[in-house]
Amino acid sequence: MNPLKKFLFELQEISILSFGALMALFTKPRYIPETIKQMDLVGVGSLPIVILTGFFTGGVLVLQTFPTLSYYSAQGQAGEAVATALVRELGPVLCALMVSGRIGSAISAELGSMVVSQQIDAMRALGTDPVRKLVAPRIFALILLLPLLTVAADVFGIIGGGVIASNIYNQDTNVFITSVRNGIETQDILGGIIKPVFFGLIIGGVSCYRGLSTRGGTVGVGLSTTSAVVQGSIAVIIFDFFLSKALQTILDLGRL
Amino acid sequence: MQASPQDFAENPDQQDFLQPIDRTDRMIPAIEFRDVELSFDDKKILDGVSFEVRKGETKIILGRSGGGKSTIIRMILGLLKPDAGQILVDGEDITAYTEKEMMGVRQHIGMVFQEGALFDSLSVYENVAYRLHEQHIDEETVEKEVRRMLRFVDLEDAIDKMPIELSGGMRRRVGIARALVGDPTIVMFDEPTAGLDPPTARTICELAIKLRDLEDVSSIFVTHEMNNLDYLSSEYATVDDDGNVIFEEEGEKICMINTRVMMLRDGKIIFSGSDEELRRTEDPYILRFIRGK
Ligand SMILES: Nc1ncnc2c1ncn2[C@@H]1O[C@H](COP(=O)(O)OP(=O)(O)O)[C@@H](O)[C@H]1O
Ligand SMILES: [Mg+2]
Question: Which fold has domain B5-108+185-290?
């Protein structure tokens, strides 16, 4: 197959898989314990790294922009700068990238080894639909929890920014908080929560597809894990651009 | 219920008038392939394969690795669809069945995978109980059935172990127990003795013989080990007066052993018949295969 044909084929397969998993959520049988387990893995498990990422990203944003802002005597707007950047862009994207690395790799490695050890075949032979049992809970957990993780990253990012502003640049905390509150609007928050829903779907779809289409023994598992993370992350970044544009139009965001 | 095979053994010529209705049903093969073809990336894996497995019969499939044996089994389960030809299970043409329709067919097929394919994350108990848990059967019934199946494969002690703690032979036996839950009428073994020591391999063959002679199961037994063929085609299981299962060599008694052999080469069936016919063949390829030289 030539590369373009292969790409289109995989895109189609990923879409069919994700769609099938979403549809499976609306009908029985549902696998509730499996879903809760996945939610724990995705949500609770990723919380520490997401908080750390958010905190230090917020911190470094203030660290780098504060001197420039003071040059234009606009240091009062540091909070706004951090909050907008985080809530609109960096929170959703960084969070999705962290989760893609942590969860996407885990999903494709787990499903991939189930494929090569014939556990997926065994499951089908025993009358279970793997899309229902394995894919749907994972995609559901990602869609539900990625927005929540993003909120955590945003909040801790703003806290990180505030800590740097007050400790390194001696800015009054109230000034920072006021600036944050003036800076972000409802649409920003809405957009920042809609994005991760799609990112969750992308990460789940790509990594489940990669895992389930594993071929060629343990070497194949390694390859699918790598491609799940790489393709998931790239898809998130590319899709983020188009999603931002769409949200700008729909929510009337980011006007000049 | 069909008459048990012991009845046949004792009264071989009575079955006709004792079971007149069953016979028409028993004429329908458990599994039938009609001119099945399959290719992977321009490579022909199966090329016009036709055969049938009759009810209560054990079909041994021989052939080199990579010859398409597992592929045949995967097709019967509907895990893979042929490019051309038809596959019938119990007279039903399953070739064009959807995944959902296949779920019904798979209910009465048991499958023993090459390496056992146990679910790593579940205990032995949960593995064997898998099918019953999926059907939301109450736990008391499940436990009784799981213990019965584990007793059948002589592994009741391992009930609380995790698959990782088991030896290769034990994993294979748990795989057999899992496949037999729900009393399937068709059981397929994919190289169940590969890589096992001779006594364990023998135990697994005995299980297959018990299924054939005492449970009236139709089965496909894929192997490339000739001693498996010897066991399955020269011994039969009966129950003695004390209710113990015993294995007897085929001797002066009428040949009751319901085992046929089939051999694959390059996607084609090059031999199909009884084990005696296989041993009498003059085909150099088959001779090499049988004697290993
Ligand atoms: N999903 C697949 N994609 C491509 N080739 C496959 C696939 N499954 C099996 N094959 C090929 O089909 C051939 C037959 O495989 P298989 O049925 O597993 O052989 P056997 O069980 O007799 O050892 C092998 O050459 C194998 O490489
Ligand atoms: Mg095989």
Answer: Rossmann fold (3.40.50)
